[in-house]
Here is the input.
Amino acid sequence: MRLLYDTKYPKGMEANWKVFAVGSALFAALTAIFGKIGVASMSSDLATFLRTLVIVLVSAFVVSVRGEWQRPGEISALGATFLALSGVATGLSWLCYYRALQLAPASRVAPVDKLSVVFVVILATLFLHERLDLKVVLGAVLITAGAVVMAI
Here is the structure.
């Protein structure tokens, strides 16, 4: 499985992952707040569909601005297959997330959603053969404890 992905990054990109990870967390927080307001006036499934359309447009804009379009023949079939599976998982995740937001406060839904971090640690260990260290295990335990406390 190790050969399926490349962990080499362009020079200087190693430090930038933290900036993007914090950006992801900030935008995920805004997603919860904006989503909670949005699903109050429509079905959670329709809300997910509208959100997806916006994501497609924003992504197409960014790819265009950065000049990153590729011809279909240049795209790895294996990579495309796993991205398609990732897309299915994302869609199902969003459908569940928006339904949960309709049924419960965002301040309780979001922490439970962050159990995805724990699932990533487990799955990355099993399938990507990433090594666990004490910091990762302790962090996963604390995230789990925090999600349980906030969900009760």
Remarks:
- DSSP finds six helices and no strands in the chain.
